[in-house]
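FAQ
Q: What does a multi-component entry look like?
A: The components come first, one per line:
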Amino acid sequence: MSSVDAAERRYRAPSSELAREVLIHGPILRSVLAQRLGLSLATLTRLARPLLDGGLLVEVNEQLEGAMGRPAKPLDVVADARQFLGVKLTGDTAVAVTTDLRAAEGSRASRPLPSHELADVVAVIVDLARELANEQEFSAIGISVGGQVSDNRVVDRAPFLGWRGVPLADAVEAQLKVPVMVENDVVALAAAEHWFGLGRGFSNFAVLTVGAGVGYGLVMHDQVVSTSQAGLGLGGHFPLDPTGPLCFLGHRGCSTAMLTIPSIRGQVEVALGRTVSYAEVLDLAQNGNPVALAVLRAAGTALGRLIAAVANLAMVEHVVLAGEGLGFLEIARAEMDAAILADRDPEAVEVDVLLEASGFISWAQGAAAVAIQRTMDTLAAGG
Amino acid sequence: MSSVDAAERRYRAPSSELAREVLIHGPILRSVLAQRLGLSLATLTRLARPLLDGGLLVEVNEQLEGAMGRPAKPLDVVADARQFLGVKLTGDTAVAVTTDLRAAEGSRASRPLPSHELADVVAVIVDLARELANEQEFSAIGISVGGQVSDNRVVDRAPFLGWRGVPLADAVEAQLKVPVMVENDVVALAAAEHWFGLGRGFSNFAVLTVGAGVGYGLVMHDQVVSTSQAGLGLGGHFPLDPTGPLCFLGHRGCSTAMLTIPSIRGQVEVALGRTVSYAEVLDLAQNGNPVALAVLRAAGTALGRLIAAVANLAMVEHVVLAGEGLGFLEIARAEMDAAILADRDPEAVEVDVLLEASGFISWAQGAAAVAIQRTMDTLAAGG
DNA sequence: TGCTTTACTTGCAATATAGAAATATATGCA
DNA sequence: TGCATATATTTCTATATTGCAAGTAAAGCA
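Then the predicted structure of the entire assembly, as tokens:
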């Protein structure tokens, strides 16, 4: 435990702190930068020069109307100075995107996984990297999986792949001569939201994802919580409704049972006696179908309870919602808000619920974000 | 929000980091220290000298049997080089303790509060400080209150005192010429557990207190979470049992209703039709009384659920339990353990529940710990 | 009495930093 | 147009911090 201390407090060169600050906080004045980093303007000039010369940063000309003295030249990163690849692995598919330094998506491709053998999966990743490669090389590759990852290198446990202790980073690095970082999918998404998404500017916030499952990530003190616990999907079976349906593990009314796409479809299908798609469920509810409405309203209430629990116990005031299973909020947003309010101290700050516009930052981009973050620590110095 | 960034990243002089490390990690070799702080041995020698000369640190002679070379002289703090005062304010009493640098209790005194007027409360604190003062001056005074505190100076809101925006630190400093720090009581306790108590050596853990109310504190990334949220008692009304009794706010089966001393007494009293003390309830249960047993077992289950929820959503694997209302665990420990297990992913690490032996670190010591921590940042340099 | 091993210290060169003065580039106004 | 004023950034320089490498201290062991 105590050795974590030292590891956590990893040294960061001042020039990478500078680069990171500019990357996250967009075009930014040197004077502001100096204050943020606790450095003098003189030092800032000296630190910035090699980054400007190296083409990582540029001075942008900002015409501030009515300003008196010499006009400021804020610093900004040249977003496409580097290119990254982000890969999200699920049980049957690999989705890859290329991104620039700001995690903005370039091109995208996906491939089915022929098997769960490490060699096959690596081959697919290599294939995707080759397909998406252009004249610019990848500075780093990020890969995210649902499950536990240690040290950004080894997949300790990935249920959907049936993996335990698989050295994925080494295997991919052996083929593509590029640094590879592996991370849990929700941790990666939280990291992306923190630097590039709705969590930008917040020191503490939580990320909840709803889709095939429920994911939960946490950023505290401007650091993503990425203990071994983080990869377990601990928000996935949180008890929310003692009268709700069962999940596949037998929990009654847990977050998986109340919120996921398969469970919502399943509930409606059982009641209607026929198969329905998730989109159909939303349609039915929109048209006043009582079954669909009941199920989605219960989901809204459950999500509200989950958000309140997260806000209370993780002590965050901002919660980012993401994932493809949030469509029900169009129908049950009011139920969610009411449930949050009910479980929240009236003296407490209202929970700030931020809705990630359907996949603005995708899972694969999250993987790329991890690669970007880890790379930033060394980018300033070397390549 | 973004300004928090800079504030959070408060600069700490290397010599105070050194002093802090020695304070927390007891007698410690220079070589270990150098590694932890990421400094060379040479630098360590230089940093340590003024602290040794100043009498804050000493070299202890440790006879390691069978060691080959020159024997190591680990560094340690001179615990009684400084003296601190910790004061805990409740609605009707002020409890004060003197402590050394390691938050070990010296002497203790308490006084009733004649009123909630700031002047009266300050007078009581000054009185206590004078009574407990000996030849050694206080380096700093810590005061903890139940409620929200900003900037370690102003009590924004303290329900038990009926305070809003009371500049307590200024008021006390005006009378006693000693630095005063104010903090929320649970935040202070968490800080004390982190440096001096059961949380020592853990980067992430939660603190739950059970007594007249339920308190909840969190340490993440080796920092106590002390946002404005932290002072609200957000763990205090967490829903735990949909069939439980009501709390004074009308929540059914919330943590207050299930766990606090008044609520447990109340439940038993209603059933038995007579007044009973908390100790009596424990006695009754010990002797097989079905009412007392039912109430305490439900409390055990509820506490287990709360612990599991905390471990899942705050992503901690260690939970420190403290407070005078934990007696029921003698009867219902098994129920607690079972409830934790039930709400926990089987793949997740077992939650490490640490029981603070009845008041080993008291509320007032927690207040002192805050004073110690804040003082350490400047101790090394100046006085 | 030396030799070995480990712990710590000192001298020195390299590096980083802040403060002050200098420089650059705008506006406002006579 | 020319000059005062304002603001942003850079250069110069003294000071401080650091790590490296060499040196010293304090033991055990032969």
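Q: Is there any commentary attached?
A: Sometimes. For this entry: Chain B touches chain A through 52 residues (CB under 8 Å).
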